[in-house]
Specification:
Blueprint (H helix, E strand, L loop, with lengths): L30 H13 L4 E2 L5 E2 L6 E6 L2 H35 L5 H29 L7 H6 L1 E5 L7 H8 L1 H8 L4 H4 L10 H6 L1 E8 L6 H4 L2
Antiparallel strand pairs: 1-2, 3-5, 4-5
Amino acid sequence: MTTQKPVFGKKTSAQTRRAVPRPAASQALSEKAEAFLQREREAAGEKIHDADGASSSSANSGVSGGKPVWGRRVFARIFDELLVWGLLFLMFHEDIGRQLSVYIEAPMGSAQEDAAGVGLIGYALIWALIECAYNIAMEASRLQATLGKLLVGAVVTDRDGGKPSLRAVVMRNSLGRFAVNLIPFNAGYLMGLFKKDRRCVHDMIAGTMVRKRVPVAASAGYSEVFA
């Protein structure tokens, strides 16, 4: 029986190579493995299809989420609020000072007091809008964090530790923030202290988490995840 000699640069048969089958969707992976594969796909700019059939793509942001944090996010929140208030006061300090002075010195129940109160409420609403836009812009960017979170080494992620979608970030900083601030005694924030995943009310509404910031290079490798 004669055999065909292989020719360099040519295939001897159309069936010489067979595509390696991908693992069946029914094969369950651990949460750690799923999160690792998610980050690898995002780093490659590959489109990820979620359970609802929607697809999204993102470039490598250079960071990934570590363990959930709570104390860091408190300091980051205070820093960001003071930052936005400082910016607003820098822009309108003369009028804010005048309105505050009138509100304090005017007779109680007078028209001057009411007008000054309305003016101060207006500045509070402007502050809320600026902070909302600031949070969304920073957390939806490649940084996935506000300046306060960058300062303390925290990052906003989805529940698997990957980059959150724009929809989730908008929900987190609009409806989520509104809902968490309605709960008395800051209980919407404090409940994160007693949860293992450190998620507050606005995180649960948006499906996000705040985690320790970890460089991609330092994240788990194949040998650790699939050992």
